[in-house]
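--- STAGE predict ---
source: upstream dedup step, 1 unique chain passed
mode: sequence only
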Amino acid sequence: MSQRDLSPEEFRELGHAYVDWIADYRARVGDLPVLPDVEPGWVRERLPAKLPEEGEPLTAVLADMDRVVVPATTHWQHPGFFAYFPANASLASLLGDMLSTGLGSQGMLWSTSPACTELEQHLLDQLADALGLPAEFTFGGGGGGVIQDSASSSSLVALLAALHRTSGGAWRTAGRDGREVLYVSAHTHSSLEKAAIAAGLGAGAVRIVDSAPDGEAGGGQAMSPAALAAAVREDVAAGRRPVMVCATIGTTGTGAVDPVREIAAVCAEYGVWLHVDAAWAGAAAFCPEHRGLFDGAGLADSYSTDGHKWLLTAFDCNLFWTRDTATLVGALTVLPEYLRNAASESGAVVDYRDWHLPLGRRFRALKLWTVLRRFGLEGIRAHVRRHVGLAAELESWAAADPRFALGVPRSLALVCLYVATGRGTDADNAATQAALERINAGGRSYVTHTVVDGRYLLRVAVGGLETELRHVRALWDDLCAAADAVTG
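--- STAGE serialize ---
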C-alpha cells in the first residue's frame, strides 16, 4: 500500500463508507444487547499480535468494527441505556466534530486559530444567557466561559484558581502550605478528591460537610449550609485556610441539589471560592420551569455543566464559566518565548491556553455550535422535558406498586428505587441487587446502582437520544419480572 496520505477523492469514497457504517450502526443499535457478553481479554485475543509492516486497505477497519469492536462495546447510545448519566452523541454533533477534525486546528492561542477562539467565546456568552447565568459570567461582563474536556478538569481548574486567590498569589511560587481545606458533601463527585490529590493538597485536605437534616434548605442528601459554616469557622480558628467549596446541582448518586444560595452566603462571608458542579443537571436550566433548582448559581465564582451528557453533544465537551477570569489566568499562565506574539501582547484577545492545564486544544465549539443550530433552544428544551416526563411516568408506576419503593424523591430524569420485600433493609438490598443483575443480563436495558444510608438503590437515569415510552415500559416490565423472581 502507498505510504502517502489519502487523496481528497480517496477520502471522499472512504468517507461515504465510514458514514454509512455509522448510520447503519445507529439504525440498529436498539436491536443489540446493551451490554457485551465478553470476558476480559476477549478483544485482545482477536487482534493481531504485531502492528502491520505494510499499510492495509481502510475498508478492513470497518470489517474489524463488526468483528471485534461492536460485539465488545457497551452501547451508550442504546435507547435502553439507563446507567450512569446519558452520553448524548447526536449525529448532528458528529457532523460538527468532523468539521473540527477536518480543519485540524490547534487553538492554544488566538493567533493560532482566531475562529476557534472567537466562536467559542461567542457561543459561551450566548449559552450563559440562555442558562440564566448573570452577565458577570460573560466576556462583556468581565467574566467568560471556556470548553473543557470534562467536569473533572473544570473542578481541578477551579481549585487551582481558588488556591491562587486565597493565597494572595503565593501558591504559584511556593505551592501548598499544608493549611488548605476543600469542602464537599458526602455526595460530591469523586473528581473533587482527585483534584485535591492532583493539586498536591492530598485527600486529607478534603473535608466532608454533613448533609442537611429534613426541614433545612436542601434537606436529605444535600450539603448543610449550617454545617458548612460551622466547619469553616472551626478551620479558621485552627489556623487552616478554607480554599474552595464545591456545591452540586444534581449529584451523581441521587440527583440531590445543594442549597447554593445559602452556601454562597457562607463563602462570601469567609472569602472562599465557590464552584458549582451541574455536570448532568445543567441542561435543565434551559427550561424556565426547572430554573428554581439553580437558585444562587449566579453567585458562584465558577460554574460548569457537561454538553456531552444531556446537551446532545458528543464527548468531550464541558462548559465552564467564571466571573473571575483574572484569577483563573493568573493561576495558570506560563509564557515561554515561543508563544509570544503581537496579538497576545496587545491585550485585545483571549488565549485559551491560560484557561486549562493542556497547552493544545481542539476546536470543540464547532460540534456544540452544530447541535444548537440543528435543534435550537426549543429543541433542547423539548429533549430535556421528554426525559423528565418519562422519568415521572416510571416514578408513578413504582410509587403505585407495592413491590417497589422510591429510595429518594425523583430528581429531574433520575429515579432511584428498590425492591421492597417487607423483610427489612438487608433483604431489600439483596433483592434489589439481584434484580439489577437480572435486568442487565437480559440485554434490553442497562441500569446502575447507588447506596444511600445503607440502602442499595437501583438508579434509572432517563436520557437516551432515542429513548421513548416503550423503552421505559420495557424496563419496567423487566423490573417487575425481576422483582417477582428474586422475592418469589
